[in-house]
Amino acid sequence: MNVHVSPEPNMYRYDEFDRSFVDARVAQFRDQVARRLDGTITEDEFKPMRLMNGLYHQLHAYMLRVAVPYGTMSSRQLNVLADIADKYDRGYGHWTTRQNIQYNWIKLEDTADILDRLAGVEMHAIQTSGNCIRNTTTDAYAGAAADELADPRPVCELIRQWSSLHPEFTYLPRKFKIAVTGSPNDRAAVRVHDIGLRMHLNEQGERGWEVLVGGGQGRTPMVAVTVRDWLAEADLLPYLTAVMRVYNLIGRRDNKYKARIKILVHEMGAEAFSAAVEKEFADAQMETVEVDARELARISSYFAAPAWETLAAFVPEIEEKKLADREFRQWLAANTAAHKVPGYTIVNASFKPAGGIPGDATSGQMRAVAALADKYSFGEVRVTHAQNLTLPHVRTSDLIEVWGELNSQGLAEANIGLIGDIISCPGLDYCALATARSIPVAQEISTRFADIKRQHDVGPLKLNISGCINACGHHHVGHIGILGVDKKGKEFYQITLGGSSAENASIGKILGPGFGADEIAGAVETVVDTYLNVREQGEEFLQTYRHLGAAPFKEALYASH
Amino acid sequence: MPVIENNRIVEDVWTHLEDRDSARDRSMIIVPLARLQEVLADWPAGHRGLGVDVPNDVDVDQLTPHLARFDIVTLNFPGFADGRAFSQARSIRHTDHYGGTIRARGSFLPDQYGFLLQSGVDSFEVSDRFALEEWIRHADAVPATYQRDYATGGLATRPFAEAGAWPEQPHYG
To answer: Of the four listed, A23, A356, A413, B55, which is most buried by Cβ atoms within 10 Å?
Structure first.
């Protein structure tokens, strides 16, 4: 009998030490749950403990958020995520904007068993919530992108280990998110994170890191400021430690909504903040630097390039198919990206079907992508910031088959980076914080724009929807952002325009009065039609907005009101 | 209140100086930070038995010049989720090389005992809510740590392979 064995991708693997660490954390959490259930600890005391293990209490049930460190996973891991969806949830999961997965229908008493199951494939839910350092995120195309300087994931893994159950930084003023990019084209939104790290190369070809601090969304959206243009790689952890210590000591704790590091940086001023960090950095003992460098080298060895073949970049069958088949051509244009190695292509699986729930994945789809990864992508899968999955290393000559198989799973909607590729929070359908529904709005908009040709005519356009001012749906950085608010018991939706989380990040500006639930999709359509009317040749939506400002859009939306 | 040191209940030999109490001719007292200058001015050089109680919202750098004169520094947890004292402890113990006792006071939980030890706290003023065993059990609930230079009390850290086993920046980039 043939037993299918998944290829093991080149990614970080646990050693005995990592394994014992995660096992112990699961046992500790099991004990914490038991003490909560027998009343030894109060709900108030249990809350931060469960949050630090990714367990939220939502409107209808517990939600468990499982970490996919920097969005990289193996097909074996993805299959286990599918099994968990079947056994403990309702047969599906939800990709998050921080490259994790969350399950929305979890029972408290099952959580420790789920964590055990995850630990079996080197996964966990450590610090996916709570006022601690969260899962580090990065470019979903890391290690594959044609435009990257180097693979940022070894540094992400170094940070994952350094931040895991950090004795000093686990009771911070507020949550803390770090994003890393190894490419000048920022697909990791580093400018809207608490800390963003951006790789640069010096004239000698050595890697160094630009350190950005104080970006974020939420109630007070801000773009991060650069506190260090160049940090030697060996100094990364001591420097991050210095930033965290300054924040932990003097970040505000009097008001939950002013407790993120962005407020501290803003109130102190970037210069004073930077000076405080530099002082801490200079004062602290640096004996770990050499250790870190060795650790980074050890970690890096796991991320060796896959066994790429020498292939021709030009594949005649693909070119012929492009000419013959418009749907394939559209899919290729939107859902694939340039790979660093000739003859390979980065392929995205779109979890944004027209009329669907953005980022929802059935267990069947998870298994299908895992099988595709095994067959076509060295067993490797990525979760993207935009709530899709990526097969990072597909042979260009396999694209027709991969397209066909994704199509059969409903995962080939040719809309990546287009208006149908909506980022949305769960909204009032699931979330205890939400003030309005997000999912139905996303569904209505993607239905209206279901015509793929029209989406391609509109071109690159990020539309993000949040169901409350906490901005989990990233509306501040959508080219078009939608914020759902509650106004006297009715849902209203504000439109912002001009946001971006890319290298030229900006916070969107509110266009004018909000729209009712039955008007918002039409209003978006008006914005898009206005853009099509006023754009100059070759101009993308964001460029047109930056070039013309809000006036034509305001005119179109409000003049007749 | 019971005090835990080295995983045992120990006698609390310290007295917190009340607001109006005089420090003159006294010993084994812990002085509020606000009165430190006043007390230090009268404190005979070389005289031991002095401690300081530090609120969690002050910069501990101001203690640095005086640390050698203290036998105990007490740090405060107004609520268990307020983690400032972790960094204060770390700064005093690690950056300033303070070798005396660092005591945690206020509300903190057995689940935080290990992190407190690793941050440099070695004395714990606790309520009678949890038995000693409950505290001790949590010292190494996760018996491994990634933070090599915070590791205390026999916590495991990642063993190093032989030096040179790692090629320089292999396959990176």
So the answer is: A413
